[in-house]
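mind reviewing both lines:
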Amino acid sequence: MSKTAKNKATAGGATRLVSHLARALRQRAGLTQTELGHRTGYTGSAISAMETCAQPPSDEMLVKLEEEIGEGLGVFELARECVRLEKFPLHFQDFAVLERQALMLCMFETHVINGLFQTAAYARAMIEGGFPVLSDERVEELVAGRMARAALFEREPVALIELILDESALHRAVGSRSIMRDQCRHLAELAQRRNVTVQVLPLDCGLTGEHAGARGGMTLIETPKHDRLAYMEMQDESLTISDRTKVTLYSQRYARIRAQALGPRESLGLIERLAGEQQ
């Protein structure tokens, strides 16, 4: 199997479709890869990598392709969201759609800062330090995808977002002290948004004999149709639960976790104090 054939075989469906359309429309316009690259601000090699699926097109490249060879069809514009989803890990792609459309998200995170609240530097350090080891290109692709999720904070209609973060995640150093300082500051800034609530589950919550979060993290979702779902991840696997009885159980457990957490103001004070300690 040739390298090009192998690339196409492993690429996602949207990426393969874009590569085929780009080549066909480029050739119909009578442009070489170098000429199209010049028009769009990319090298001929970058256009070749996109057409052979060696490198999925960036969001910016799809915008430029629509302008230069889209012929008013809107195909590259429509492909942007599909290609963006394919850049996420396979187990996360279905949830990414749910997250983007959610009316409300209630999250409990135990080990690290939730991905929706991460800075690019923190996300990059997390992904680079993970296993299996990824190429630099794949690391940057995953970081870009994670940062794109933050559009939810600005979306209309407004999404209501709650995060309960186990305090251990704030103490677990990722990357460097400066990365942790900036991450805590970013978390504090998001916590002050009107549609966001951040609470910290303190390390000593178990001293009272109660620790409702001992079974791990979860995300509760309310969809535009007002369905309620629960989502969980473990070891690169994911589970989305729609059974009403089970979702009710997880909702009740989440409520207990929230009751055991520090209040929003106390939590913000703790986060800001920890940011100051990372100087």
Q: What stands out?
A: The chain has a mean pLDDT of 91. The first strand starts at residue 104 and ends at 109.
